[in-house]
């Protein structure tokens, strides 16, 4: 029973470790690997909360750990990725601008954690840091096709949107088949990188994470379908 309660935290720590590895790959010039690790972190992040509810393993420790993991994987890691791929040419100024992303992301997470209005499943206040970090990872992954100015504009916009009061639609209660969009984006990115001939440099973790995530989605779909039949 105690091990069961640890499972969601293990996924959260896996998310954090993906962020750490992403920073390392970015520093070594392996930008595709760095971006893919952020996307793997997104998969793990989407699973830990649901697993905690499924296993009745919700805890304050898990919630705090999730926020710490998010700021590393979806705040610090994307900012380093953007810095090493483009902002580095602006020297200290580029580093300072890149640092805005995790700063605003941390503020957004802290504001959410102390918010008393968490009951709504229909919207978020401000862009979630997970979505912002994932968008930057995908833009970097397709960097050869996207002008740097576009990446810069999106980076700046997301930084401010994270701390904005804009209501962003939430998909927490969207029927599971629509979560296939996430899988489609991820697998599409994977196929693109393989097509570019860099698959041999991929972290082996991706070959474990992808089938696990697809299996998880399939399980959630079957469970939801059976529940609907019972109702």
Automatic annotation (TrEMBL):
<dbReference type="GO" id="GO:0012505">
    <property type="term" value="C:endomembrane system"/>
</dbReference>
<dbReference type="InterPro" id="IPR048254">
    <property type="entry name" value="CDP_ALCOHOL_P_TRANSF_CS"/>
</dbReference>
<dbReference type="InterPro" id="IPR043130">
    <property type="entry name" value="CDP-OH_PTrfase_TM_dom"/>
</dbReference>
<keyword id="KW-0472">Membrane</keyword>
<dbReference type="InterPro" id="IPR004533">
    <property type="entry name" value="CDP-diaglyc--ser_O-PTrfase"/>
</dbReference>
<comment type="similarity">
    <text>Belongs to the CDP-alcohol phosphatidyltransferase class-I family.</text>
</comment>
<keyword id="KW-0444">Lipid biosynthesis</keyword>
<feature type="transmembrane region" description="Helical">
    <location>
        <begin position="121"/>
        <end position="139"/>
    </location>
</feature>
<dbReference type="InterPro" id="IPR000462">
    <property type="entry name" value="CDP-OH_P_trans"/>
</dbReference>
<feature type="transmembrane region" description="Helical">
    <location>
        <begin position="176"/>
        <end position="195"/>
    </location>
</feature>
<keyword id="KW-0594">Phospholipid biosynthesis</keyword>
<feature type="transmembrane region" description="Helical">
    <location>
        <begin position="201"/>
        <end position="219"/>
    </location>
</feature>
<keyword id="KW-1133">Transmembrane helix</keyword>
<protein>
    <recommendedName>
        <fullName>CDP-diacylglycerol--serine O-phosphatidyltransferase</fullName>
        <ecNumber>2.7.8.8</ecNumber>
    </recommendedName>
</protein>
<keyword id="KW-0808">Transferase</keyword>
<keyword id="KW-0443">Lipid metabolism</keyword>
<feature type="transmembrane region" description="Helical">
    <location>
        <begin position="145"/>
        <end position="164"/>
    </location>
</feature>
<feature type="transmembrane region" description="Helical">
    <location>
        <begin position="20"/>
        <end position="44"/>
    </location>
</feature>
<dbReference type="InterPro" id="IPR050324">
    <property type="entry name" value="CDP-alcohol_PTase-I"/>
</dbReference>
<dbReference type="GO" id="GO:0016020">
    <property type="term" value="C:membrane"/>
</dbReference>
<feature type="transmembrane region" description="Helical">
    <location>
        <begin position="90"/>
        <end position="109"/>
    </location>
</feature>
<dbReference type="Pfam" id="PF01066">
    <property type="entry name" value="CDP-OH_P_transf"/>
</dbReference>
<keyword id="KW-0812">Transmembrane</keyword>
<keyword id="KW-1208">Phospholipid metabolism</keyword>
<dbReference type="GO" id="GO:0003882">
    <property type="term" value="F:CDP-diacylglycerol-serine O-phosphatidyltransferase activity"/>
</dbReference>
<dbReference type="GO" id="GO:0008654">
    <property type="term" value="P:phospholipid biosynthetic process"/>
</dbReference>
């Amino acid at each position: 029973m105690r091990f069961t309660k640890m499972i969601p935290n293990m996924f959260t720590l896996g998310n954090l470790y993906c962020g750490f590895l992403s920073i390392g790959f970015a520093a070594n010039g392996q930008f595709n690997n760095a971006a893919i690790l952020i996307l793997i972190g997104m998969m793990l992040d989407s699973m830990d909360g649901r697993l905690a509810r499924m296993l009745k393993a919700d805890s304050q420790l898990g919630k705090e750990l999730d926020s710490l993991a998010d700021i590393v994987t979806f705040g610090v890691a994307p900012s380093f990725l953007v810095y090493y791929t483009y902002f580095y040419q602006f020297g200290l100024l580029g580093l300072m601008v890149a640092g805005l992303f995790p700063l605003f992301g941390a503020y957004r997470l802290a504001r959410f954690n102390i918010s008393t209005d968490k009951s709504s499943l229909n919207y978020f206040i401000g862009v979630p840091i997970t979505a912002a970090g994932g968008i930057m990872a995908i833009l970097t992954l397709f960097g050869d096709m996207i002008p740097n100015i576009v990446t810069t504009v999106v980076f700046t916009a997301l930084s401010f949107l994270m701390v904005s009061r804009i209501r962003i639609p939430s998909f927490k209660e969207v029927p599971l088949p629509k979560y296939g969009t996430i899988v489609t984006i991820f697998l599409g990115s994977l196929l693109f990188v393989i097509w570019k001939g860099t698959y041999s440099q991929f972290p082996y973790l991706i070959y474990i994470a992808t089938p696990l995530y697809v299996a998880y989605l399939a399980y959630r779909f079957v469970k939801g379908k059976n529940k609907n039949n019972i109702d």
